Amino acid sequence: MATIVTSTRFTDEYQLYEELGKGAFSVVRRCVKKSNGQEFAAKIINTKKLSARDHQKLEREARICRLLKHPNIVRLHESISEEGFHYLVFDLVTGGELFEDIVAREYYSEADASQCINQILESVHHMHQHDIVHRDLKPENLLLASKLKGAAVKLADFGLAIDVQGDEQAWFGFAGTPGYLSPEVLRKDPYGKPVDIWACGVVLYILLVGYPPFWDEDQHKLYQQIKAGAYDFPSPEWDTVTPEAKNLINQMLTINPAKRITADQALKHPWICQRSTVASMMHRQETVECLRKFNARRKLKGAILTTMLVTRNFSGEGGIWPQTNNSKNSVVSSTSSTKDSSISSSAPMVSHLYLLSLIGLSNSICPSFFLSIVHRISARKQEIIKITEQLIEAINNGDFEAYTRICDPGLTSFEPEALGNLVEGMDFHKFYFENLLSKNSKPVHTTILNPHVHLIGEDAACIAYIRLTQYIDSQGRPRSCQSEETRVWHRRDAKWLNVHFHCSGAPAAPLQ
Predict the structure, then answer these.
(1) Count of alpha carbons within 13 Å of 114, Cβ hemisphere only?
(2) When you count CB atoms within 10 A of the terminal residue's CB, does the N or C end of the chain come out lower?
(3) Which one of the listed residues 136, 196, 216, 340 is annotated catalytic?
């Protein structure tokens, strides 16, 4: 039985061993109970760095974890407080993530997906029986007890979990992870246990085809998709999925939470309880390949976000479950709440497209999902190239008004005309527009060569290119000049503005 101990030192009862993971304010290490040699995972939290709010969250999660004792839930055995540190002793779960295990299998079928979601639903059913709502059910929190074949799936990380009163629906705060948030949470309506079922529906969709039902690099568009329940079962990958599996997904992803299937009802669905005769046994190789790419994308995003969190020393670290990177995609928001001040925002710090482009995901598998990603990457880069061309055209035409519409008023620049000095603002450039460029009646043609665009989050980009300018000199002879340029763009109110410019080589505009 889990107990709270404040007088016994952790080191008196446990021997610490190697590090298993690390968070912003905690470290997870393997430990062994001295009295019986049993292995556990100890999360050691530096309470000196925690705020009063963080202490409340820690106590709430420990209280919730102590209530839950189920084969499909990671169990908290002890919670020990000492001066400056808090020790949480959990099951030692050694099988890694469920999704990582699936891609390593030689055989994976719809029936296997049914068995996985069955165990997940069992854990959710147990939680809901104890009036607990998880609020952050996602692949990162679905683990395997061991590396053995057939190891139990275990639900972890109760950092955002809350207590509810039966079927109570109330506003408990905006919490979760982008693609797994339910419509009612996004609408900021009262919510309760059905939010976990919605997340199960998203997970089941991924288990069957390897990509999520809702996706867009633009968070607003993603949320609009979710609120509208705008998902489908595209060909060819869904053609081989049984109607019963699709039916269960539809019942889980029902927009109205009052009409959404419950965990108990889902466990009685034919696709779950009669899987041997209902679920297909066909090997789903394309799902495995697609899921491998999905995992790579998740891991890279998690690694980048974790690095940012540790570097910036953010407070409000994720759950107290002993595993790194779990809650790092559920970024804590500053929004206040009457019920729960531990509110998770799903705003990612790094663009989904940027992450995907780093991984180099191909569109050879699951075209309905990955082809759209490639198109979005290309479209965003073309947008940056186009706005850069418009800026250069304004320079060539001597159109200072058009130039100022595209540039930030505080534009900074390094350029040959400034003799190596950093220039800030528009006055330096205005001189050339008024005294040279606007009076230049000779034709000027500029070509951007080898443009390289780097997408930096949702609202920033950098473009590097060679600018080749053709013009006619004062003697009527054709000339050309070349410069190497870099521009940094920032999007504000849906409008791209040039905020920094660096030019080397010849002057940006012909001065002859």
Answers:
(1) 26
(2) N
(3) 136
